[in-house]
Amino acid sequence: MRYWEPVDELRVRGWVLLSRMDYVRSRWGEAVLQELLSRLTPEEQTQWRQANVNGWYELRFVERFERLIAEYAGEDPDAVYEAMGAFSAERAFHPEKGQYRRFLGKPPELFLKLAAAWQNEYYNAGLTEYYPTGVSSCIIRTRYIPYTTRPNCRSNLGFFRRSIEILGGQDVRAEERRCLLQGDAWCEFHFAWQ
Fold first, then answer.
1. pTM > 0.90: yes or no
2. How far is CA 37 from the centre of its chain?
3. Torsion angle of alpha carbons 172, 67, 149, 128, nearest 10°?
4. Which 3 state secondary structure label does DSSP give 1?
5. Which label site among 45, 95, 116, 169 has the fewest CB atoms less than 10 Å from its CB?
């Protein structure tokens, strides 16, 4: 399938599910993770408990659990979704086992340019593009997806913001300026740092 071919369901790789469960474990412990999972249907619980890093999972399926996490946190949901994205970045750049550890010590723009291309491997549709707008600023745009969810967009914002920080960016400014949820044709994130 090519990114511009329409699909009815947007799917993400199983690493997202594993990261969400690890986020809950790291913040509140295994007992809370099991409590939150128990609030899902029996079929959903099975899928979460048997999540495969290379499996494909419908984005709205993932959203249901992400909303439970935010509800349990009792905080601003957008802040929780961004924190989940930041947690994923910290895992990805772990100096011993993170899949992006080879970028440690390199400039953020190198990672961002390649990360936009890699994101196309984590979704079953769409095109994520990187546009430099200055020496230390860029736009990341996701197009050709049938829909998105609020947790997905805010998590992406948190992931890229934290990635820039891990790679040495200071005073990172991150903003979502366009979103399918607001009726725009694509989702667009603007980043700037020192």
1. yes
2. 20
3. 50
4. coil
5. 95
Element (H, E) at 143: strand 137-143
Burial of 143 (0-12, 13-18, 19+ CB in 10 A): middle
Q: Which two tokens stand for residue 33?
A: 């993770």
Cβ 27 vs Cβ 69: under 8 Å: no
Residue with tokens 């909303």: 67
Give the whole-number percent of the chain exceeding pLDDT 90: 87
Give the per-residue pLDDT at 4: 57
CA 91 to chain centroid, in Å, comes to: 12
Which residue's entry shows tokens 């891990």?
166
Length of the chain equals 194
Contacts (Cβ under 8 Å, ≥6 apart) of 98: 91, 92
Please tell me what DSSP assigns to residue 123. Answer: B
Residues linked to residue 19 through DSSP beta bridges, in sequence order: none
Chain centroid to Cα 120, Å, comes to 12
48-75 residue pLDDT tens: 999 999 999 999 999 999 999 999 999 9
